[in-house]
Amino acid sequence: MTVAPSTMRAWTTRGLGIDDLAEETVPVPVPGPTDVLVRMSAVGLNYRDLLVVGGVDGWRPAAPVVPISDGAGVVVAVGDAVTAWRPGDRVSAAFLPRWRSGPLTRETYVAPVGGPVNRGMLAEYVLLDQDEAVRAPETLDDVHAAVLPAAGVTAWHALVRRSRVQAGETVLVHGTGGVALYAVQIALALGARVIVTSGSDEKLARLRELGDVLTINHRTADVAAEVLALTGGEGADHVVETVGGTNLNVSLASVRIGGTIAFIGLIAGRAAEINTYEFVTRNVTVHGIETGSHEMFAELAAFVDEHGIVPVLDSVHPVEDVREALRHLEHGAHFGKIAVTLPGSAVALSG
To answer: 128 pairs with which residues across the strands?
Structure first.
């Protein structure tokens, strides 16, 4: 059995920007009765991490905190009362630790992993409560498992739990970010017809390599008109709205009467002028999507194993280059997930 050292490296943020991210040597935490100690193999970056590290609005931590919400690692020690895990198990953390199953509530919508309150994954060792840990997919290596949690579970929540996508239905996905790419992969595995928008012909070409995907360049085409043409004038059965802002108007014009829109987007801003009467004329259901529960994560992991889904990796960086990895995310030119490895990680699959 692996024996943990007495000290480890951890990285903390005060919300003062990427350059202020600090590497520290701290004691390795000791498991309490219901805790598992996880040696982290890799972490995956999300847009939210930039908000925490950058100290944007309510995401700014009041005190230094370990950032980064996604990661995967190996259990190396367990508390005396732990029954669900043993050393050697590969696990990730649920983004909302208290959201086990059922609908999101005020009581469970607390302490998301990765700041500004709850510690994140950017450390060589992390303590998780046994109920917070989720088994990593068996078919994914450390790095691919590390980039799955937040974006993958959000896409699963949107498509499977809320929109209830069925084989043969049409799903419109906006963009090529982490949630969007997972939505494409999950929708294809469900047997849906997938249409994706992007402003980059290069990214659209790479999307088509994932499977039978129809693509629209939103810079050169009228997205709603193209979607209606591709669906015989009906519109998409379901829309995954990852952009937000006024792009919701595009989604409303593209969805069929009685369809669904899973609203996730923040990139285009937190407020916008929306043609709200379209909610009526489309008789549409708009779902606000906040990541997902522990139960949803477990469902996704099983689905990934069943269908052989491999998360798309843009790049993999050693932890010593974590600031450069965050800048790469901030620049926004990436396609696929950005991962950061810690000592002992392994990549056995191509991205």
So the answer is: 36
- Torsion, CA 31, CA 32, CA 35, CA 41, rounded to 10: -20
Decide whether 7-148+311-341 matches 153-288 in CATH topology: no
Q: What is the pLDDT of residues 101-149, one digit of tens each?
A: 999 999 999 999 998 999 999 999 999 999 999 999 999 999 999 999 9
C-alpha span between 226 and 215 (Å, rounded):
10
Instruction: Please report the pLDDT score of residue 2 as a whole number.
Output: 57
Return d(Cα 332, Cα 351) in angstroms, integer. 18
> What's residue 322's pLDDT?
98
Q: Which of 107, 95, 247 is nearest to 157 (CA)?
A: 95
Q: Is 231 helix (H, G, I), strand (E, B) or coil?
A: coil
236, β-bridge pairs? 255
Domain spans in the chain, listed from the N-terminal domain onward: 7-148+311-341, 153-288
Cis peptide, bond prior to residue 116, ω within 30 of zero: yes
User: Phi then psi for 238, rounded to 5 degrees?
Assistant: -140, 145
| Length of the chain (residues) | 351
The residue behind tokens 């209606």 is 228
CA 252 to chain centroid:
24
Concatenated DSSP letters of 99-121: --SSS--TTTS---SSSSSS--S
CATH number of 7-148+311-341: 3.90.180.10
What DSSP string runs through 36-95? EEEEEEEEE--HHHHHHHHT-GGGS-SS-B---SEEEEEEEEE-TT--S--TT-EEEE-S
Give Cα separations from 250 to 44, 232, 274 (angstroms).
Answer: 30, 18, 10
To the question of domain 153-288 being in CATH 3.40.50.720, the answer is yes
210 CB neighbour count, 10 Å cutoff: 14
Helices (H), 231-341: 247-254, 277-281, 294-307, 322-331
Which residues contact residue 259 at a Cβ distance below 8 angstroms, ignoring those fewer than 6 apart?
235, 236, 237, 238, 239, 282, 284, 285
